Amino acid sequence: MTYNTSKIMEKHGKVTLAIEVMFINKIPFIMMTSRNMHFGTAKLVKDMKNNTLITSIDQLIQAYRTCGFKIMAILADGHFRHI
User: What are the b/e assignments for 39-57, b being 16+ CB within 10 Å?
Assistant: First the structure.
């Protein structure tokens, strides 16, 4: 099955993201998954400070926006309660 960009954007252009922090060998990564497309992204986080987390989240969101997606909501776990 072949999809063109306009069909993908029509069907999945509005995105809900789920986000969490995952530790691999005690190294934190922000993991983000789009709810309907099931597309995952990961970003290494140098520390768990609020400003660092916010910057990392903004960078991931910008990657989606650059591709033309509109972020409608972000679902997060307890690591982001303080942000």
Answer: eebebebeeeeeeebeebb
Residue 78: closest CA among 15, 21, 17? 21
**Which residue in 8, 28, 15 sits closest to 77, CA to CA?**
28
Q: In this model, does residue 1 exceed pLDDT 60?
A: no
The domain locations on the chain are 12-80
Q: How many CB atoms lie within 10 A of CB 66?
A: 8
What pTM value is reported for the model? 0.75
For the segment 11-40, what is each residue's pLDDT rounded down to a tens digit? 778 899 999 999 999 999 999 998 888 888
Which of the listed CATH numbers 3.40.50.150, 3.30.420.10, 3.40.366.10, 3.10.25.10 matches domain 12-80?
3.30.420.10
